[in-house]
């Protein structure tokens, strides 16, 4: 009885994508990419303070914060902005094959965030602007807290190739 040998399937890195890659043309207005919720702790704030070197007492001195009208030390705004990082969502996996650059961001800080707050970040595609062989994806970046309050609102822009290589 003869046994047939089957050639092994060649290894292909594209078989290891987290989600199927899409082209610029396959993206749709209104698509939302959510990041996992996170509850901030004093340790998060202390780590960010160390990295940023921001030593303003509003971020770590409870008495100073209270004397100046805050209910507790305020989490660094840039730390809250960091929660909108696209890499916390599936978005970079979706555009990974056509991604060129993260080109722009802006934001408004709309409410205080304190240790113990849980944040819910999301990116929503609000515009797709083709430019020939490239295109710009514009997303609204938002962060809500556990009470449903919008604490950060902003915008990200990404440059993509309009066709996969």
Automatic annotation (TrEMBL):
Gene3D superfamilies for this protein: Hotdog Thioesterase
Pfam families, alphabetized: MaoC_dehydratas (PF01575)
This protein's name: MaoC family dehydratase
Highest taxon above the source species: Bacteria
Domain MaoC-like: 30-141
């Amino acid at each position: 009885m003869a046994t047939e040998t089957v050639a092994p399937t060649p290894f292909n890195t594209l078989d290891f994508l987290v989600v199927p890659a899409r082209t610029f043309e396959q993206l749709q207005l209104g698509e939302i990419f959510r990041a996992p919720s996170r509850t901030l702790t004093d340790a998060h704030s202390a780590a960010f303070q160390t990295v940023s070197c921001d030593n303003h007492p509003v971020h770590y001195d409870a008495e100073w914060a209270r004397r100046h009208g805050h209910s507790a030390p305020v989490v660094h705004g840039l730390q809250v902005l960091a929660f909108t990082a696209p890499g916390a969502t599936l978005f970079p996996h979706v555009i990974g094959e056509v991604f060129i650059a993260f080109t722009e961001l802006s934001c408004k800080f709309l409410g205080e965030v304190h240790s113990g707050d849980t944040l819910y970040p999301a990116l929503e595609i609000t515009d797709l602007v083709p430019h020939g062989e490239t295109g710009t994806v514009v997303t609204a970046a938002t962060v809500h807290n556990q009470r449903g309050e919008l604490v950060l609102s902003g915008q990200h822009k990404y440059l993509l190739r309009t066709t996969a290589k």
